[in-house]
Amino acid sequence: MKLEVCENKRIAKNTFSLKIDNPALFDASPGQFFMVKINDFDYPLLRRPFSIADFSDRYIEIIYKVVGEGTKILAGKQKGDFLDLLGPLGNGFGDIKKGKKIFLVGGGIGAAPLIYLSNTLKSMYGISYEAYFGFNTKDEIYVDFGKTATMDGSSGYAGNVVDMIESQLDENCLVLACGPTLMLKRLAYVCYQKKCSMKVSLESRMACGIGVCLGCVVETTDKDFKRVCVEGPVFDYREIEWQAL
Amino acid sequence: MASSVNLTVKLGSLIFKNPVLTASGTFGYASEYKNYMDLNALGGFVVKGLSVNPKKGNKPPRIVETPCGMLNAIGLQNVGVDKFIKEKLPLLEDVDAHIIANIYGTKAEEFIKLAERLEGVGRVSALEVNVSCPNVSKGGALFGKNPNEVVKLASSVKKHTSKPVIVKLTPNVDDIAVIAKAACDGGADAVSLINTITGMVIDTKTKKPFLANKTGGLSGPAVYPVGVRMVYEVYEKIKVPIIGVGGIYNSDVALQYLMAGAALIEIGTANFTKPDVTIEIIKGIKEFLKVENIKSVGDIVGIAHSV
Ligand SMILES: Cc1cc2nc3c(=O)[nH]c(=O)nc-3n(C[C@H](O)[C@H](O)[C@H](O)COP(=O)(O)OP(=O)(O)OC[C@H]3O[C@@H](n4cnc5c(N)ncnc54)[C@H](O)[C@@H]3O)c2cc1C
Ligand SMILES: Cc1cc2nc3c(=O)[nH]c(=O)nc-3n(C[C@H](O)[C@H](O)[C@H](O)COP(=O)(O)O)c2cc1C
Ligand code: FES
């Protein structure tokens, strides 16, 4: 489906917010993603997966980091351009039950889907939560809520976001996380030790986004493979074979 | 201008409403595409490669993008033939298009078992035999590289099915026409080509091959000239219909395959980029024939050889 770009602006170092006209034809839940075609022609060939950073009556927002060819071209899109989106796809964070203490934990560009999640938790469920975000440096920060950690200590807690929250986690907590694989791996280790629950959004190379190519799989603890695009991208962390990542 | 054009194609006893099929491994078990297009519009589809038992496939990463293409090393992950028949086929009951089962094994006996298992399954119109897989009894060399093995495999599958047998050829050989002839000698009713071209991408950050399997198969627009050339070469050497595959992403490339000698075509990787690309391609072929005042799609098959 071709949708109009309403805004595409830089919001932090190498980081852009893309607002796309919402045709109000479908609903989308936090953690779901779109496969975005970068150009009208076939270069770059494959669609790029991006999480939903916000979803309102007017806009679908994607927050993305320029990391390669596709995202570089995306950064050049302007108001009035059209983008071809496929989605919303995948399983998001799902129903969040009351009762547990909720922690949103994001690393880098992985904080993006947690913005929509936080808005939903607040407005739809009236659930309170704490949010923690880790970045490398101060100029990468694009979230305006929660507590932040920076690796270089230029803002907030100095160091890793997992270290920042570790002491607060116990079996009464539910962590909702997204971020770089290494961070998630550490977080999973901590959650195992503290017996706390966690739902985690994973990344994987995708070709189709709709479950047919079997390219995006992750190894699961039952010695099987699951598709990140259909069974994920959000998984219960106990399902994932973290050693294999 | 002709008022209507005839897009139908015959392959043995089968009639296809148009020459456009989807390629194995790129269209799942077809029902996944129901939300994106009208499956009835297609000539047919080739489902994901089936083995006797379910197969897990390779460890990730399994895919990597390349300029106008991609490498994949899925490792033929599939639900196995029994689950396909029980769980996947019923989802297609109401679909009016040919379903072709792509089968593969590591021993001739496995191919025979698959043919036998599918024999009573009326909904499956034909078998496509993937010979791009390692033959364990020959030290793992691909069946599809050895003409003698291809003759044997084609004839043993043929003996165990009444359905048309299509042999799908690998391009990773010296002379694909020799292999195509071998398939015909074995009794194949058609050949399809090409499967993916073996390649490798190295991640310069880790200094290792990017894919867990190290090598993968190249597909997508980048490979189409190779496929067109091979179809052209094979057309001159064999009598049975050819199914052209490889990099087809629009109707122009589809027409090139037909003109090179393909009677039917399969669309693969392009389905990922544009889930309804097949519809566009069918339209484009029809439009071309109308404008050129050509009555039947069969009239352009192999036409590039006569000039
Ligand atoms: C479910 C999901 C949600 C995502 N959400 C976001 C988001 O909200 N914001 C954001 O900035 N990024 C997100 N990503 C990562 C994003 O898809 C990649 O950064 C992007 O595809 C890079 O494209 P490129 O052409 O710039 O990079 P290149 O490196 O040039 O891309 C080459 C190929 O690799 C793939 N690729 C490269 N990096 C990644 C990656 N990290 N994950 C998956 N595929 C990759 C590309 O899709 C492309 O096919 C998400 C990934 C997934 C799987
Ligand atoms: C992800 C993927 C999976 C594939 N799986 C199979 C398979 O199971 N059996 C088979 O015969 N070919 C398989 N192929 C090969 C395609 O059917 C086709 O021959 C090839 O991709 C070239 O066509 P294309 O460039 O249009 O994709 C696969 C290709 C891709 C990209
Ligand atoms: S991206 Fe194709 S199956 Fe997930």
Question: What is shown here, in short?
Answer:
The complex is a heterodimer of chains A (245) and B (307). With 245 residues, chain A is of the alpha/beta class.
Task: Walk me through this protein's architecture.
The complex is a heterodimer of chains A (245) and B (307). In chain A, strands 4-3-7-1-2-6-5 form a seven-stranded antiparallel beta sheet. Chain A has a seven-stranded mixed beta sheet with strand order 11-10-9-8-12-13-16, sandwiched between helices. Chain A is globular and about 50 Å long. Chain A contains four helices and 16 strands. Chain A is 17% helix and 34% strand. Chain A has two domains: 2-89, Translation factors (Elongation Factor Tu (Ef-tu), domain 3); 101-203, Rossmann fold (3-Layer(aba) Sandwich). Chain A has helices spanning 69-75, 112-125, 161-166, 181-194; strands at residues 2-12, 15-21, 33-37, 48-51, 54-55, 59-65, 82-89, 101-107, 130-135, 147-150, 157-158, 173-178, 197-201, 217-219, 225-227, 234-236. With 245 residues, chain A is of the alpha/beta class. In chain B, strands 3-4-7-8-9-10-15-16 form an eight-stranded parallel barrel, surrounded by six helices. In chain B, strands 5-6-14-11 form a four-stranded antiparallel beta sheet, with no helix packed on it. In chain B, strands 1-2 form a two-stranded antiparallel sheet. Chain B is an alpha/beta fold. Chain B has helices spanning 81-88, 108-119, 147-159, 176-185, 224-235, 251-260, 270-273, 277-291, and strands at 9-11, 14-16, 20-22, 44-46, 63-66, 69-72, 98-103, 124-130, 165-168, 190-193, 197-200, 202-203, 208-209, 215-219, 242-245, 262-267. Chain B has a single domain, classed as Alpha-Beta Barrel (TIM Barrel), CATH 3.20.20. The interface between A and B is medium-sized, with 27 and 33 residues. FE2/S2 (inorganic) cluster binds next to loops of chain A.
